[in-house]
Amino acid sequence: MATVLFRTPDNTTNTADSAGVTLSTLTAINVTTSSINYGTITANTNTGATNQLTAVANAGNSSSSLQLSAQATLTSGSNSIATSSQGYSTSTFSYPGTSTALSATPATVAGYILTAPTSTTNVSGTIYWGLGVPNATPTGTYSGTNVFSALFHG
Amino acid sequence: MRVKYLIFIFPLFLALFFLIPASPTHAAFGISPPFLNADHLVPGAKYQQTVYLVQDQPNQDLNIQANLTMPQPGASWISLDKGFNFVIPQGVRQFPVTITVSVPSNVTLGAYSGNLTFTTQPSSAGQVTIALGAQVAINLTIGTGTFEKYSVPLIQFPDILEGQSPTVHVKFQNDGNVPESFDGATYQLYDQYDSVQLAYIQKSSGFPTTAPFTIADYNLTFPLDFYLGVGEYWGVVNFYKNGQVVASQKAIFNVLKATWYQEAWNYIMDEWVYFLIGLVLVLIVIALAIWRSKRK
Fold first, then answer.
1. What ipTM was predicted for this assembly?
2. Domain count, chain B
3. Residue A52: is its pLDDT beyond 90?
4. Chain A contact present for B32, CB below 8 A
């Protein structure tokens, strides 16, 4: 709320209050990379210690945790790679190592919290990705969609 | 030799500039507020809350898919005004979605929880495209008790035209599970220096009722028995409920010069009974004149 003091030339004064403004809670994230590219991987091998990185920034005014899921599994025509073949972690890993298998059901990333920003400095974190391609997977260019969801954390 | 070299190189650079795909930028996406907490519902109640899907780069239409994860029967009570698949048009940064909870009359009392996730449907980019989502946590509690809670987050004094009576704009937010309204109001009108009281008006009826769990916006007029001319005035309004002041405001407003047709309209509105009688008399005279001319 702001109070404005008026003063006339004859020194008469008065004040007026503006209406209060309520700041709503906004939970939002920004993933600054728009895709994950694992490159070329042959069947029955994996990305090993080469992780793909996605940077996630808090774009809201509340603390936020993160949920990950697959909206569309990796497919190439009629061929597909199981959703669980993608693994993620909050630190680097050698596939599968400490990674968590991706699933179609949203799962909260354990221990991953983007605190509420208190200045213009970005609050951000990184998710590390890896992929294992099962044996006998036909060659092709596979594509899919992963979902990063912001979850209010108080 | 050098000119020939440049002629060869320049189109090559130009072609590369257009052929290299631009790295797709990713917009931030979120929701406000990220929760729907309705903990004073009663059987048969209808509760509505608007959430806003927010994006920072509305460069193109954005397809959204909503997914409700909630055990039955709670899931069947929830609907969205936009449906579960919709498009946020290009250029829109804040897109409202109203969530309606319709509690059946024969419901088992208790707590019902779930979540509603809104997910973007981006166009394909790279091997694994990244879609963004935002979640609304839903917590419903169905009970039997009466719960009264309301607030008046906004009272404004809109400018009016000369000859009109002062008007107050009210936003009434009813968070309780019973209908609410004011039962009285007073309005004090002061001159531009806030020193001379020009009118004191009491109002004890004509207050709109706000349904449970809704927000109502309405205007209340405080009729004056004199002509209010052009100028600046101060208004002070107090709203009462059960004999207590529950909301008040003091602010300056303007009375603006009215055009001749606005004045005519004001006159008709103020004196509509006489205007109606006059109109009927004129119509009777015209009808008589026509009747007499036909007899001749």
1. 0.84
2. 3
3. yes
4. yes
Q: Tell me the pLDDT of chain A averaged across its residues.
A: 89
Residues of B in contact with A16 (CB under 8 A): 250-252
| Six token digits for residue A19 | 């209406």
Q: What is the structure's pLDDT at B35?
A: 95
Domain ranges, residue B280 = 262-296
Q: Which residues span the domain enclosing A85? A: 26-152
Answer yes or no: do B133 and B216 share one domain: no
pLDDT of residue A67: 95
Mean predicted confidence (pLDDT) in B5-25: 41
Q: What is the DSSP string of B249-288?
A: EEEEEEEEPPPHHHHHHHHHHHTHHHHHHHHHHHHHHHHH
Pairing mode of beta strands A52-58, A27-31: antiparallel
> Where on the phi/psi map is residue B3: left (φ > 0), alpha (ψ -120 to 50), or beta?
alpha
Domain boundary among B142, B166, B193: B142
Please indicate, yes or no, if residue A20 is contained in any of the structural domains. Answer: no
Q: Please indicate whether, in this complex, the C-beta atoms of B126 and A29 are within 8 angstroms of each other.
A: no
Residues B132 and B36 in one domain: yes
Residue A34 lies in a domain: yes
B148 vs B153: CA distance, rounded Å: 16
Between B26, B30, B126, which is nearest A150 by CB? B30
Q: What is the pLDDT of residues B174-212, one digit of tens each?
A: 988 888 999 899 999 999 999 999 999 999 889 999 988
A147 CA to chain B: closest CA distance, Å? 5
Residues in chain B with CB shorter than 8 Å from the CB of A33 are 26, 130
Cβ–Cβ below 8 Å for A147 and B128: no
Domain boundary residue, one of B142, B161, B176: B142
Within 10 angstroms of residue B103's Cβ, the number of other Cβ atoms is 20
pTM exceeds cut of 0.95: no
Is B216 in contact with B185 (CB distance < 8 Å)? no
Say yes or no for a CB contact (<8 Å) between B30 and A31: no
- CB within 8 Å: A29 and B29: yes
Tell whether A2 is covered by a domain.
no
In this prediction, residues B90-96 reach a mean pLDDT of 95
* Closest by Cα among B239, B223, B249, B250 to B181: B239
Residue A1 domain flag: no
Q: Across A38-52, B262-276, B279-293, which has the greatest mean pLDDT?
A: A38-52
Task: Indicate which CATH number applies to the domain containing A55.
Answer: 2.60.40
